[in-house]
Amino acid sequence: MTAFALDDPFDRGSGLPRPGSLLRTAADSIPPSGLVLLAIVSVQLGAGFAKELFAALPPSAVVFLRIAAGALIMGSLVRPRLKGLAWRDWAVGIGFGVTLAVMNLVFYEALARLPMGIAVAIEFLGPLGVAVAASRRRIDLLWVGLAGAGVVLLAPWGQSASVNWAGIAFAMVAGACWAGYILLSAAAGQRFPGTTGLSFAMIVSAVVIAPIGITTGGAELWQPELLLIGLGVGLLSSVIPYSLELQALRRMPKQVFGILMSLEPAVAALIGVLVLSEFLHVQQWAAIICIVAASLGSTRVSKRRK
Fold first, then answer.
1. Between 87-111 and 59-77, two packed helices, what is the crossing angle to 10 degrees?
2. Residue 181: its pLDDT value, please?
3. pTM
4. What is the predicted pLDDT for the residue at 298?
5. Helix (H, G, I), strand (E, B) or coil at 10
6. For residues 41 and 206, what is the distance between their CA atoms, to the nearest angstrom?
7. Where exactly are the structural domains of the chain?
8. Which positions, given as ranges, span the membrane (predicted)?
9. Phi, then psi, of 203 in degrees rounded to 5
10. What pLDDT is attached to residue 210?
């Protein structure tokens, strides 16, 4: 049972609109492409702030803070409905949660070893693969190819002396998990009302990652200032973007969602410059132009067909 009644947008005690209803109304007023863009900015800001925490905590402990904070916030706002779930619902919810845990863990390990823009560029191979597999129009292949060219330019191929190959391996695993996340989040949106599927998945994710995060974090994990920063990272990286993406996936095709996510490396590179002082080369700016062009092109074609 959810914390907010889906058929009653008002609190019976005060007569005021419920917070969940207000959030859903606000989300419904934004085009799905706008929801995806807001989610991208939010998650990359969260990743930038999380990387700042690596000086005090190992990546696995930061992942635990992020996911635990997100699960706590989502669980307090939206209680997942467990009664009456079919075994397929359980499978989707648990699979979604495990995928979230692994995806965040391996991505943060990549982020600790690579510049933010490069890590996200390599990770993007996952959703790019979803876009290619789901495409049914030739024009979509053009945008995917242009985005792929941007990924190749952003990735540090040919610079083996300065490349951390463990970081690249972690980023590639994160990309595979990201592809699974796109498919499972869409399935969860169809099987769970509102954001209850997200809440269920985040609780599962927190349970999965807790043993690793608590063990590696040690006593430093419980410092009040780190817990507060972790709460902010959880909001930016989990609660806000995942909620926006679930709403967007209900209103747009998966392949269009996957192509729009090509903005991730560009936004990550910009956040890397602004937050982490990870300055870019001309080749990387050229990659950003390719990726932005692909995203804008796919959005225009999608809108014209509608």
1. 140
2. 84
3. 0.76
4. 63
5. strand
6. 23
7. 32-305
8. 56-78, 90-108, 114-134, 141-159, 165-184, 196-214, 226-244, 256-276, 282-301
9. -65, -45
10. 93
